[in-house]
Description:
Distance between the termini of chain B: 49 Å
Strand content of chain B: 5-15%
Largest interface: A-B, 68 and 72 residues
Number of strands of chain B: 19
Number of helices of chain B: 24
Radius of gyration of chain B: 39 Å
Oligomer: heterodimer
Distance between the termini of chain A: 17 Å
Structural class of chain A: alpha+beta
Structural class of chain B: alpha+beta
Shape of chain A: elongated
Strand content of chain A: 25-35%
Number of helices of chain A: 8
Order of helices and strands of chain A: HHEEHHEEEEEEEEEEEEHEEHEEHH
Mean pLDDT of chain A: 78
Largest sheet of chain A: 5 strands, antiparallel
Radius of gyration of chain A: 30 Å
Mean pLDDT of chain B: 83
Largest sheet of chain B: 7 strands, antiparallel
Low-confidence stretches of chain A: 1-13, 209-222, 332-337
Amino acid sequence: MYGLGRKLFNHKRDTISFFFDRKFSDWISKKIPAREQIRLNKKNIFILPSKYGFVFLIVAAAVFLSGVNYSNNLMLLLSFLLISLFTLSVVFTFRNLSGLVISASETEGCFVGEQAMFRIVVERDGDRCYENIRLYILDTAVELVNLFDQREQTVELLVDATARGYLNPGRITVETIFPLGFFKAWSWIDLNMKALIFPKPIECQISPSADVKSQSGPIANPHGADDFYGLKRYTPGDPISHCCWKSLSRGQPLTTKEFVNPVDSTISLRLSDMPASDIETKLGNLCYWVIKSAEQSQFFSLDLGDSQLTVGNDPNHTREALSRLAFYRALQEESLQ
Amino acid sequence: MKVDQHQIPRESLIWIIVAQLVCVSPHISHVPFWVFIFSFLCVYWRWLIYQGRLSHPKPRVRSFIAVICLVSIAVYYKKLYSLEPAIVLLVITYFLKLIELYRTKDAYVILFLSYFLIATEFIYSNKIWAVLYLAISFSVVTGALIALNRSHRRHHSLDTLKASVKLAFLSIPFAIVFFIFFPRMPPLWVMDMSPNSGVIGLGEEISPGDISDLGKSSKLAFRAEFFGPIPSRDRLYWRTMVYSNFDGRSWSKASTLTTQSKFWRLLMKTPEQLSRIESLGPDVSYRISLEPTNFRELVTLQMPINFEKDAAMLTDFSLIVDKPIKSFRSYNVTSTLDYRVEQSIRPWVYHRELQLPNNYNPITRSYALRLYETLKKDPETMIQYVLNKFNTENYVYTLKPPLMGRDSIDDFMFKHQRGFCGHYASAFVFMMRSVGIPARVVGGYHGGEVSPFGNYVLVHQFDAHAWAEVWLDGKGWVSIDPTAYVAPDRIAFGLEDALEEDEFLENSLFSAVKYSGNKYLNNLRFSWDYINHSWNKAVVNYDKQRQLEFLSRNFGLSSSLSMLLSALGIILLAFLILAVYLLLVSKPKGSNEIDLLYTRWCRGLASEALIRKVGEGPTSYLARIKKDSHLDDTLIESAEKITELYQVIQYNKEGLEKANYYDNKQKLAKLIKLFLRKLSARKRRKFMTKRIF
């Protein structure tokens, strides 16, 4: 959140720049408060000459000076035209941003080390065309928006996930220099978006079999892979490696072999059992095992010390387990509430 | 869509090349040809790069080319610090940059240079067509800038051109206000760099044949706008240069000005010199708009008695300014047509106007001496006799005099007897000097065409003329035109009538002046000239003084500060109006008022974390509101109403009567207002409870 201010003022995090960061951040969040949908207008658009704008002014001044020195009125006229063009481009650049409605769409979480995706919808209010609008967050790749025939365009911004928990991408920069490049109009908007970041899965060798508990009742998971269960009629979509080609060769209809996981092998995953020494690696190990269990449709329970999750194996259960890992003694408390 | 933001769009390259070619096109006339070949090679090279058939030059190759260019400029021009080499250097850099055009930055450099190149063209031409060039090149360069900033491939170049023309058109009123009001200032420093164009005109030295060369040119020399009635044609002697020195073959000015301090001394002595002119008749006031001449002399009717303060009067009563006139210049003069000048001649002037080389033209000299003897040494009788001789004997006035030998005046007087005004003036002055009468040759123009539009006279180069001045005791300098006795038509009607058939402007077949017999063409020519004259008056010559006149008369502005402030004031006002118009008035046309109402409602709900998804219909949005929101029943109920009403109005437009439509619209507006008010009240309440607990 303070990143933008830091980028603006100083990269070093000394006390003074930190002070300015805070000031800047407070100011900007007061001026452009976080909202899911923002309409760009004079309240939240900033506009200043770009570096090319300054160079252009120097050219205009050079033409003006030659006009004065040669007492040449046509040169003066040209320099006045250049200055008028410069002035007009303020309005046109501003117009190319004003009236846009930017709203948050869905986000896609990821694991630490990957990139979380934030989907943003840029919509126009009216039939004016918008051109060459750039959207980015800090150092992410720039996405371009052009609205001519279509009313809206969706852009996806990818942000590096560095820590588990909720990832707040910070302020999104929406900027444009169209049509002439003399001015840059921009806005720093906060769409209140956040993406859930899970710990990075770290492979490890524990033997969860030690914790296998016997379970009452033969619950079969029909989509397992370990033990052969029987044959069923082929339905499109069945894995081709499971097809029973032998029976086909005997002239019978195509059948598929079914496998099941033995239900009695339920894994209990405990934080304290993880081999690593520091907590983040331990969470990474747990994450690895949660994913592995989910892939194999293995029933598992999760014990994080502070919180427990009972046995289960459906996708919701897995998701719950992963988010508990993500939020374990959450790093960003403010993003949790 | 991800792109490298520094890469230039491929389409814009074509724009840049076109802009370059447009900007450089008028420079063809004053830039050597090899520069153009070089430029086209650069364009071709860039085109090959564009097609992927060639690569960008390596830095070593680039600097090699740059050095070659610099050396060729130095060799071609001998010196680098003057205008032509500077412009050639600009053009070469401009095109060299093209082959090292990789990034947006380079493109900006080229396009900004383009604007500067447009400006340099105006050093050479201030003609009215320059505006056309300004308009076209300005639009194209601006178009190239727009193309550079576009990222969408859908675009047609025509769209870009339209956008740039629109921008250019909007800039024009602002520029004009600036032009009128922005206070003009004197040059900040002296620019030595001025163009050396091949100007045709009078020279500092003439041999008799020179003026006949001028007689073949139909170029405009100057215009003179009279503030009163235009004097009759036979009085329009435009005195420009006075030639007092004769070396046997050619005449030259008495002194050539070399230093600036000499000029200042002359400027100081000007009032003293002016006091030697005694005006006898009515004065004539006029304004001369002089085309570039490359010399310092100002053109005036003889004799000037009142002129601008920066002109100095020489001892021969010609006017000069401090620098050669290399660009369009205009000035006010008052002249007296009847005068008595220098009645008491100073001895050194007397001697200057008598000097003759001894060993030239012996026949004419002895003839003159003998004649003077027989006429009892009376100067006036002598003058009359010689003029009569030109008139009655077989002397021919022609643009094509035969080649004269070493003693050119002897050859002219007694062998060929054919010549142009320069020959007659020169022979006349020679004879006067031979017998001890001070005399000199005066060069300038005679007559001119009176334009049917406006009170002004057009004087062309073919109106160039030479006549004589003789000093007579008691009368001072008297102007005598021997040509008037040889070819009276020349003085009464002009060169065309004085010459033999087809001699007039025989080398310029397409000159409009040549066809002045055609009434329709002639009128067209005069109207075109009138446009040019007005253009010069209004734009080219809108200097400090004119600006002050114009603004104080029309706007009551008399100081630079007030001009500047009013310029900025008007600009600011216009800018605000335009901004308000562009940003507020040109409201969305596409979405109708019902849609707008509905969107406002959706936006209100968005603060409740209920954003209407893209493409979500009103019904499914309502369903989601019901399901997800924590709104109370009354709000849900009114949300239902709003959605229903919106759909009724929006999708049943034809079914609704007009009056009905308005009623429904009002109803919807009211409902939405109520809803939003309740919503915000609720939010406030929630906030309060949060604060309490």
